[in-house]
Amino acid sequence: xxxxxxLMVRGASAIASGAGISPMVVxxxxxxxxxxxxxxxxxxxxxxxxxxxxxxxxxxxxNIANLGLVLGVAGLIAPIAMQGQLVVRELPLLVLATSAxxxxxxxxxxxxxxxxxxxxxxxxxxxLFCIFLYVSARDVLRQRKDVLLQGVAQLPVPTRQVIQPKDxxxxxxxxxxLAIGGHLTILNGAELADLLGxxxxxxxxAVIAVGTSLPELVTSIIxxxxxxxxxxxxxxxxxxxxxxxxxxxxxxxxAPVVIPAGGVIDLGVxxxxxLALFPVFIIGNxxxxxxxxxxxxxxxxxxxxxxxAA
Length: 310
What we know:
The protein is mainly alpha-helical. Helix content is about 80%, strand content about 5%. It is built from 13 helices and 4 strands. The strands form 2 sheets. It has a two-stranded antiparallel sheet. Helix 1 packs antiparallel against helix 2, helix 3 packs antiparallel against helix 4 and helix 9 packs antiparallel against helix 10. The chain is globular.
């Protein structure tokens, strides 16, 4: 995980610099998809094996861990400055996606049927995911168009002109390292929990969800240490969007995902964590400092304690 995270951040940063693409865009797409690959593998396998409740808990638990644990730890290491673009578009889109999941989970009060994410719900989430990809791709095209309209005489001298083959190699090896490391963490963590006699609730919430969030945690910590706040925040927000709009519906297309007891509460907590970032921009001048990071981390620990006690 450490090696994969280092290679991922180094390769993605170099590619963004060489191609003239904002590191925020790279973090929201390439890095986010790479660090979300463990969740995708776990969810598809869980759906194929009829463990739909495990698939749901993995996605929701990972999303809460991304905002509470990952951002909390990364912000404690180094304060994270967030771009205005994150407030204007990505963060509201994250709130919208999480709100859509909450509505889809209200089958019992709305339709009087068991709560689940079926194939129709999965298609709706995938359509939202396509919108997210379109907006991210449009950003890249707009950046290139703006550069062309500036004129050759007004172009700034680039700090890097050519993307080296090793940059793609680093990124690819980083994705593989994160996926393999996350997979081994899940397998050995679950086995260790069984040997210690830990409850299945603790395995799902604290082992599986946290295990699949370790790539995001490692990548964001390394990005914070390397003073790459765009990659750190973009990785977390992008991974959460990937989890809710791609990973969960991918499993639901294989088999309907049953929402377990307390699942609506988990989704509500995930929504609260996303909404909690807005005061950072209003009160904290778009800087996620150590105080706000401590609040996020403490909130996550309280959530874990509540789920274990429940």
